[in-house]
Design brief:
Bound molecules: S-adenosylmethionine, magnesium ion
Radius of gyration: 32 Å
Strand order of the largest sheet: 6-7-5-4-1-2-3-8
Helix content: 25-40%
Distance between the termini: 47 Å
CATH superfamily of the largest domain: Vaccinia Virus protein VP39
CATH architecture of the largest domain: 3-Layer(aba) Sandwich
Low-confidence stretches: 213-218, 306-325, 397-437
Mean pLDDT: 82
Strand content: 5-15%
CATH topology of the largest domain: Rossmann fold
Shape: elongated
Number of domains: 2
Number of strands: 11
Largest sheet: 8 strands, mixed
Length: about 425
């Protein structure tokens, strides 16, 4: 049978669900009779889903592929604002469990035919009456197709309790609609050869819940005894930027990366002229970026162009930056001070993660990897090379000012109180620049 369909029937059924999800964007999805979780492993990539649950009666099957549902390293390295929780339960589709009630979508792919016919009514009551999701996708073999399957005698699988014709499937589905207030469309996957009027190899019914007043029978009442009949085997929360710890971790990495890169650019580009002032460099570079309609982030992402920097420094009159309303970075003795306002306004990645300067400050305040000024308004980056460190420490005892610090009279007063702190602590403020994710 496998060779009859390409892609395989199994893949086509799962693709049908994936396409449905892409169109309808359900947030809570449960796969009943999920087996070895192959559909769930595909659905975990559909990030519109926030809660993805699998239920099966076969615990061994469930445990075999649990690892396939775990977040990948990229989920940790590049988390998004989307949220996903995956849960696996050992239990029967014939029993009620409140944890899968009121979902947007229930799927049950090639499961119903494994139930005894006498239990199918109970399945309908649990799925449509108790779980009462917005939509349901049920697939099952179409017995009318069986004569076309080479070498098949009897049912398609030894565990099948029945296989329905299209009329039998339709009759069951319409009855469930009438009882529980759903409407249904019929389709399938696995086309018959041309001229054969037998329907699809796998027949599929897609149910949508209709308005409450259309429900013929009130769903069975809430039974506290049945509320938690499943046993949870697995649950995992995917990393999300909506979680404060994840957001802080990513933001810290970004802030360390961009402040270190800014420092490195400055140090690289001034290498031919150790006396070059940071303020002139910043102003000239800012003006050039403005003229080229380039953002600081774009500039920092690319290798230095030392020639053009030399030319910039030879110019004059760069006493303001295009984004003058934002505080500008400045050097104070051996440190680079990067105001959070600058990071938020000039580095879109930082602003989109933090949302505001205040929020950025709040998140960085508890992060030991980032050194903030006393008032929390700027990140302080040490500019000394390791081998300059000792010499500088000795010099600092006698020399309390530097040329660069004097360039920033306007800001010097503001940071007067912080200055002691910069020198008292003396150690590099940034431990790493490569921790960015
Ligand atoms: C043919 S497999 C389909 C697996 C999966 N839906 C897929 O598409 O790959 C049928 C699954 O239904 C499960 N099953 C059978 N009876 C069940 C019940 N009463 N409750 C939950 N799962 C059941 C079986 O353990 C098996 O994993
Ligand atoms: Mg089957």
């Amino acid at each position: 049978m496998a060779s009859m369909f390409n892609p395989s029937l199994h893949k086509q059924r799962h693709q049908f669900v994936v396409d449905f999800i892409q169109r309808n964007k359900p947030k809570k999805v449960v796969d009943l009779g999920c087996g070895e979780c192959s559909l769930l492993s595909r659905l975990k990539f559909r990030r519109e889903i926030e809660l993805l649950v699998g239920v099966d009666i076969d615990e061994r099957k469930l445990r075999r592929k649990t690892l396939g549902l775990a977040p990948l390293s990229t989920d940790f390295l590049q988390p998004t604002f989307e949220q996903l929780r995956v849960e696996l339960y050992h239990g029967s589709v014939l029993e009620k469990d409140a944890r899968v009630r009121g979902f947007d979508l229930v799927t049950s792919i090639e499961v119903i035919e494994h139930l005894h016919l006498a239990d199918v009514k109970c399945f309908s009551a649990v799925v449509f009456g108790y779980m009462a999701p917005k939509a349901v996708i049920i697939s099952t073999p179409n017995s009318e197709f069986n004569p076309l399957l080479p070498g098949l005698s009897g049912f398609r699988h030894s565990d099948h309790k029945f296989e329905w014709t299209r009329a039998e499937f339709t009759s069951w589905a319409l009855e469930a609609c009438c009882h529980y207030g759903y409407e249904v469309e019929f389709t399938g996957v696995g086309r018959a050869p041309q001229g054969q009027q037998v329907g699809f190899c796998s027949q599929i019914a897609v149910f949508h819940r209709v308005r409450r007043e259309n429900i013929c029978n009130v769903p069975p009442g809430y039974d506290p005894e049945d509320e938690f009949s499943y046993t949870q085997l697995y649950s995992v929360n995917y990393p999300s930027l909506r979680d404060n710890n994840t957001l802080r971790r990513v933001l810290v990495s970004e802030v360390l990366y961009w402040t270190e890169t800014l420092k490195n650019k400055w140090m690289e580009e001034r290498s031919g002229d150790p006396g070059a002032e940071f303020s002139s460099w910043l102003a000239a570079r800012g003006k050039q970026l403005h003229e080229n309609q380039t953002t600081w982030q774009e500039y920092l992402e690319h290798p230095s162009d030392q020639c053009s920097t030399r030319a910039l420094w030879d110019g004059e009159g760069y006493d303001h930056l295009p984004s003058a309303e934002h505080q500008q970075p400045f050097t104070l003795h051996s440190s680079l001070w990067v105001p959070l306002g600058f990071l938020c306004s000039c580095i879109p990645k930082v602003s989109s993660l933090s949302g505001s300067v205040e929020h950025l400050k709040l998140l960085l305040m508890d992060a030991p990897e980032v050194r903030l000024s006393v008032d929390g308004s700027a990140v302080i980056v040490n500019c000394l090379q390791q081998n300059d460190q000792n010499e500088k420490e000795v010099n600092d005892i006698e020399d309390t000012g530097s040329a660069d610090a004097c360039q920033f009279n306007s800001t010097a007063e503001r940071v007067e109180d912080w200055e002691d702190e910069v020198y008292d602590e003396g150690s590099p403020c940034v431990k790493t620049s490569s921790g960015r994710v």
